[in-house]
């Protein structure tokens, strides 16, 4: 089973903070760095290059969700950036997911590189059953919704999904063992939950079969990011003694 090194979400405001984190986490088992909307809207591809130049793999998380043509064209641009993972919303439907995958491949082909793995967002980890029913007016359960989106993403030829580790077992029942389940909403016992609703510890994520954890504030917003990262990485990657 594929188990990626932990993915650290670079949800910070500027390049100085990026450089500090790259420096702090450059010893030992290196994380994959996730660049999200905040940094990309500010700095564009330059911030991707900065992280790549420092020798790290990049997960570019822009969560595309638009009409198929727009998504395909945007994914063609992303495909040429040389990132390892990128995201799209499963809620956009089969045609949009397929167009996204096609764009990503076309961009990579033009640049002469391997295409990024495309992951579909199922239900954000900040959503729970109550929000799903009362605000999104979706009548099936959150677990069913996540399973349906996983099936749809597999049909579209994606590499995997983003979900809570709580749903990995259910997802594997419908898409098999090799479909990637990348799981944010990770909180060590000592950390506060913040805006996340479906949270698990790094140890639990490993036990539940997560292929990769995404961790932001419990690493980037603490006094000692390096210590926090290595502790979380050890919990996620080491077999239980
Ligand atoms: O796509 C994501 O990475 C993502 C999906 C999801 O359902 N929930 C979620 O929290 N994320 C991202 O994972 C990171 C979690 O950050 P923390 O809550 O600070 O650990 C953020 O960068 C979110 O954008």
TrEMBL record:
It catalyses: orotidine 5'-phosphate + H(+) = UMP + CO2. Substrate binds at residues 11, 34, 61-70, 125, 187, 196, 216-217. Residues 5-232 form the Orotidine 5'-phosphate decarboxylase domain. Its EC number is 4.1.1.23. Pathway: Pyrimidine metabolism; UMP biosynthesis via de novo pathway; UMP from orotate: step 2/2. The active site is at 61 (for ompdecase activity), 63 (for ompdecase activity), 63 (proton donor), 66 (for ompdecase activity). One of its GO terms (molecular function) is orotidine-5'-phosphate decarboxylase activity. Homodimer. Catalyzes the decarboxylation of orotidine 5'-monophosphate (OMP) to uridine 5'-monophosphate (UMP). Belongs to the OMP decarboxylase family. Type 1 subfamily. HAMAP family: OMPdecase_type1_B. This is Orotidine 5'-phosphate decarboxylase. It comes from Paucilactobacillus hokkaidonensis JCM 18461.
